[in-house]
Amino acid sequence: MSKKLKLVSLLIIVIAVGWGIGKYTTTSPTANNSGSDINVQDNLQGKPGEDGNSTGEGITDPVVANPSNTTDPSDPSEPDSNGKGNSTDDSFKEPDSVAVMVNKEYGLPENYKPTDLVYPEVRFTFKEKIEKRMMRKEAAEALEKLFAGAEEDGIYLAGVSAYRSKETQTRLFNRYVEKDGEELARTYSAVPGYSEHQTGLAIDVSGSDGKCAAESCFGGTKEAEWLAQHATEYGYIIRFPEGKQDITGYKYEPWHIRYVGKDIATYIADKGITLEEYYDVVPVSK
User: Fold this and answer.
1) pLDDT (tens digit, 9 = 90+) per residue, 16-62?
2) Which has the closest alpha carbon to 233: 158, 150, 117, 135?
3) How far apart are CA 202 and CA 246, in angstroms?
4) Which terminus of the chain, N or C, has fewer Cβ atoms within 10 Å?
5) pTM of the full predicted structure?
6) Is 276 a catalytic residue?
């Protein structure tokens, strides 16, 4: 083989070897420089609807904290920025809730009557088992404990008036209007359909002797003072406190107690507020 032919053959071999090395060392177009992060974009997109906090490019659903709107009104552990209670919960509009709001602005459905009315085993200022002796079962049981607790402290209470139907409230209100005129009557008596007594959760109380029953002279008595200090322990509140008439729409009634459950009662007492303020539904019309 001539020298020239050898050089050409050697050149062909060198070119062939170089081509083969380049073929097997070129970077793959489907990989990136991170090596193990192949298809890393799959990990950047948060799982839709899981926490609503994805930092990737994918679209995520927002967090739904309370989709069924069933917040328990008896849990005031999350007050709003103004220190009020569960002001975003609509269950206070439910007539069968023990925390239902009934005042001059919020009434009850037409012909509403609780389905669980019972006769609490407590002392009343009368003996007959009639309408105004009844209360809803949960409230009645709490009332029995309240009366028992009072007696342990030497305080003897008596019920004066508990449940009232709309028909009864109508007769009472009309009587007060005839006596004092409608404007004055509205300061101490509810328009039919807007009375807490119709819920079966409220009761007027007095001392066992019945003196000052549902009258201003009840304020300052040992019975009234005991109720102010201890009613919350049994889930009751003084519904129309002194100095809150512009909020509740009613004058001070130390004898009118209302069952709302221990959690709400304690919160209201600790804050020195009314049920209206707890639900942030103030002021009421006078």
Assistant:
1) 445 444 443 333 333 333 333 323 233 222 232 233 332 333 322 22
2) 150
3) 21
4) N
5) 0.70
6) no
